[in-house]
Specification:
The structure is a single chain. The protein is α/β, with parallel strands linked by helices. It is built from 14 helices and ten strands. Strand 5, helix 9 and strand 6 form a beta-alpha-beta unit. Helix 10 (225-238) crosses helix 11 (240-249). The protein is elongated.
Length: 335
Amino acid sequence: MEEKKKLKFIFIVFVLLISFGILGYMYLLDLDFVDALYMTVITVSTVGFREVGISNDQSELFSVLMIFLGVGVVGYAFTTIVAMFVEGKLVDIWKGSKMERKISSLNNHYIICGSGEMAEVIIDKFVEESLDFVVITNKHKDLDEYSHDNILVIEGQSTEESVLEHAGIDKAKGLIATLDAEVDNIVTVLTARNLNSEIYIIANALSKSGSKKLMKVGANKTLSAIEISGNRMASLMIKPNIISFLDVVTRIGDVELDLEEVIIKSGSYLENISLLDAQIPNKTGLIVLAIKKHEDKQMIFNPPIDYTFKTGDVLIVLGKEDQVKKLRDLGDGVK
């Protein structure tokens, strides 16, 4: 972003130089605006075309000053722009402007705060799922890396309102706080909740007390990477077969099975028919593990075969990606 400041500085100085020359020639040579602009341009550019007006000692000294100023400004501008071009920074600036337009057009997207190892895992998953998201980081190294990988990224502190607003917090669907310091996660969650009361927030807790604080300031869920890793290692030792099964359904292993959610939409094939009549296992090969009812948000595990689907119900299913697509087609399709 330093390059943008340089270009802006060059533009401002150039405008001031031209304005200074116009006002000077209008006063010293009693010229109108167009003639004064003409004199300024031919003086700064040192092209030596015919002068206008009757020159005097003051105007000649002023022309000398304008020549020195012009050579200095133009020389600095030329060397700076050439250096940016050679280093590829002009392309980066163009990409940055393009990225800003994409960020401003985001809607119902996700915001990832932080760029550590945990954030990288989340980013890889979001890229794999082709989700719309933007990353907020204050690490310039990660900023350059993400921007070159066509990942939408904003430089700044997610604890600041202006940065979250830049990321479209008012239009975002969810926010994940994975900052290195727990206090930064707490401030980020608090600020995000104040800016958007409906957004779903997940935060990384570095301690048990931190988890409670994050929930108090507005997080919907908190996770502790240390606690999860410790529990998993203990379970892997105590119940290795169960963990092997979980590896399958969480796609940690080689088998490409996954837990997915499918929403029943209005007018679809699945609306107002029972689980038995839907014949989901026969038509898709999926296993329906649970249903989250739309009316009261209650989760029904191992749902009964006579349960009737309603619009907005969420099906939690286990299967392969192509099988999930078949079910989504049924859930979206018109009767």
